[in-house]
UniProtKB/TrEMBL annotation:
This is Predicted rubrerythrin Rbr. The lineage of its organism: Bacteria, Pseudomonadati, Thermodesulfobacteriota, Desulfobacteria, Desulfobacterales. Pfam families: Rubrerythrin. It comes from the Bacteria. Gene3D superfamilies: 1.20.1260.10.
Length: 153
């Protein structure tokens, strides 16, 4: 993967986020259980927020400089889970595992790309993308942990 500019990176990231929206929307359409359907719809909405954020960064480069980078905690739960494919009627913890792994791979991609360039503007954009994915990963890992804790009782 070679990117010539910040616009190339943002275009790639926007496309990936749109793919995620489509992925979760399609899963929501296949799911019979209301709670699982709503979970997928919420995942699609979250990915849609990323599309909006990235499109905003692309049209207003000043937002790249204004964006506040923060340290996002990593529970590392997904790091120890095996990747799986969606099957209709899956248990909620397996659905969350799919979503966590997707976010984990996105964080890794953007971090790896940031390591391979010396262009400060490109590194900043990749760090923004990584942070946004890390936020989703943290939210999903927290949801997964809470779900498992609730179901142990």
């Amino acid at each position: 993967m070679n990117f010539e500019s910040v616009d190339d990176i943002l275009a790639y990231a926007i496309e990936k986020e749109k793919e995620a929206v489509q992925f979760y929307t399609e899963l929501a359409g296949k799911e019979k259980f209301k709670s699982v359907k709503e979970t997928f719809e919420n995942f699609a909405k979250e990915e849609g927020k990323h599309v909006t954020l990235l499109e905003g960064l692309k049209t207003d480069k000043g937002k790249v400089e204004e964006y506040e980078l923060k340290e996002i905690p990593d529970l590392k739960i997904s790091n120890y889970l095996v990747e799986t494919e969606y099957k209709e009627g899956m248990f909620m913890q397996d659905i969350l595992r799919i979503a966590m792994k997707r976010e984990e791979m996105a964080v890794k991609l953007y971090n790896d790309l940031a390591q391979k360039t010396k262009n400060a503007e490109v590194v900043r954009v990749l760090n923004i993308l990584s942070q946004e994915e890390a936020k989703h990963k943290l939210g999903l890992e927290t949801m997964y942990d809470d779900f498992l804790a609730d179901n142990e009782n």
